[in-house]
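PROTEIN DATA CARD
Card holder: Transcription elongation factor GreA
Chain length: 154
Origin: Pontiella desulfatans
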Amino acid sequence: MKQAIVDAVIAALEQELALRLNANVQSNAGAAFSAAGAEKQRDTTGYEAAHLARGHAMHAIHLRHRIDELKAMEVEDFTGQEIDLGAIAEVEMDGAVDGYMLLNCGGGTEVEVDGKTITVITPESPLGSRLMGNIEAGFIELPSGLEGIILDVY
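Structure generated from the sequence above:
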């Protein structure tokens, strides 16, 4: 099941990558069109479109590296171990039980596998930083004051 979750996250990130690449193409086209048709000396539309295209390209490169890291990641079982990258933790907060997978990218991505919804969190997130190093049956408290119980880790 864990590999299916990682594969679903990769698929979601690859969709985002495709959107970024398309946005880059569109921004580059806008930059070329605006530069050719600039009517006034202070028309910065082409410059702004080029700047936007560069931002999309940089984000796409970063995302491609992260996707490659996920593809190379070995899926491990964290049962009885401290939570680290690749672990899935089921946490109860305010009476609701939610599943979270700790990864180095894709924070906020939700995937559904085998009828379970898993939300990707990163170590930099408030919940991710609180989960790191804990084991199941541990209590956590978020900076917001919300408390939770780690029910299961795998």
